[in-house]
Design goal:
Length: about 400
């Protein structure tokens, strides 16, 4: 239960804030003299705290209006009833942070990690009509995200019961298994958002844009979707699809036999717009040369898969695990690889002969928020590819084609 708030907001100068941050860092590292930072009911408005280490800090009722906390570490921070209006929290880590009753109206949370955060109802600090924020009153309110930008944010498992998020941008955000009963998301933008397994009971999505959103495992029975745009929404996988009269799993087995026998047995897999999700996993499977344009692989495990020369153009590869996969010479034109894991994957050219090399083609591919650490992609075609918020440490993009 939150402690009663003092009457006055404390205003701290930048020097004292830096001292408190240094002591907090020592506290986190277990060093003598360290002290947990307590910014409760402090006015930190407009301060540049980008990249600050504030994990486990106490910031109940803090005023951070228009502050810069981009890239900051705010894991498990108590921001109960805090004022975060128009705050820059882009790429911040706020895992399991307590944001009950916090006001994030107009805040920038693009690429932020809010997994497991709590945005439920809480005591929110309100300014006195005459004294402004010097004197605080309190009122029970849900967390407010109206007009905030959470594009690409990770809200997996977040507690957002009754949250106000009208006209909020959740484009490509991860809201899987989030708790949103009674939430108000009228006219919100959730294009490409992952809502798989989310609790949307009594949620208000009137007029919202949910184009290409993932609604697998969602009970829409009590959700108000009046006027919502559900174009291209992805629901739960259906039964095993067929390819040329054979179940897809058999077609994959035959393709692998064709590869292992040098073409003497089995047959080449050619199928467009197929949902591969009923297979569950394709980890370490041999599938070079498959042709499956515009197919769905969402959330599947393809780690270590052999996909040399495969045609995966236009495929839905969002949240797919392609770690250490062999994608040399693959055609991924216009594919959606948002939030996918391509760590240490091989996207270099496929050598067909001493004179001929087939480059991997990622033209117009979407790789927002993808993990590309350690990827080898020399000579790849990247014209029009979107690498927004991608993690690219150690990624080899030498001699790539971008024009």
């Amino acid at each position: 239960m939150a402690a009663a708030a003092p009457n006055l907001i404390r205003i701290l100068d930048a020097t004292l804030v830096r001292e408190m941050l240094n002591l907090h860092l020592q506290f986190l590292h277990g060093r003598p003299g360290g002290r947990r930072a307590n910014f409760s009911y402090c006015d930190l408005s407009g301060l540049n705290l980008s990249g600050a280490e504030l994990s486990d800090a106490e910031m109940t009722g803090a005023r951070l209006f228009k502050s810069n906390l981009s890239g900051a570490k705010l894991d498990r921070v108590i921001l109960y009833g805090a004022d975060l209006r128009e705050t820059d929290l882009s790429d911040a880590s706020m895992i399991r942070s307590d944001l009950r009753g916090a006001c994030l109206r107009g805040a920038n949370l693009t690429g932020a990690d809010l997994a497991g955060c709590d945005l439920r109802e809480g005591n929110i600090a309100l300014s006195d009509p005459e004294a402004g924020f010097k004197l605080l009153k309190h009122e029970m309110r849900p967390g407010e995200l109206d007009h905030a930008n959470l594009a690409g944010a990770n809200l997996a498992g977040a507690k957002m019961n009754g949250t106000l998020a009208q006209a909020t941008d959740f484009t490509d955000a991860n809201l899987s298994k989030a708790h949103l009963p009674g939430a108000r998301l009228a006219k919100a933008k959730l294009d490409g958002a992952d809502l798989s397994g989310a609790d949307l009971a009594r949620a208000d999505f009137r007029g919202a844009s949910l184009k290409r959103a993932v609604l697998a495992g969602v009970d829409r029975g009590q959700v108000d979707l009046s006027g919502a745009d559900l174009t291209g929404c992805l629901s739960a996988a259906a039964e095993m699809p067929s390819v040329e009269g054979r179940p897809l799993n058999e077609a994959v087995d035959l393709h692998e036999a064709w590869c292992n026998s040098g073409g003497a047995k089995g047959g080449l897999l050619k199928a467009g717009a197929i949902d591969f999700r009923p297979l569950g996993t394709l980890t370490r499977r041999k599938m070079p040369g498959i042709s499956a344009p515009n197919s769905v692989f969402f959330g599947m495990d393809l780690s270590g898969a052999e996909l040399q020369g495969a045609d995966l153009s236009g495929c839905d590869l969002r949240s797919v695990n392609l770690a250490k996969a062999d994608l040399r010479g693959a055609k991924l034109i216009g594919a959606d690889l948002s939030r996918s894991n391509l760590a240490e994957a091989n996207l270099g050219p496929l050598v067909l002969s001493p004179e001929r090399k087939l480059p991997t083609d990622l033209s117009r591919a979407k790789l927002t928020g993808a993990n590309l650490r350690g990827v080898s992609a020399p000579h790849a075609r990247l014209t029009g590819a979107d690498f927004s918020r991608a993690k690219m440490e150690g990624c080899d993009l030498s001699n790539t084609e971008r024009a």
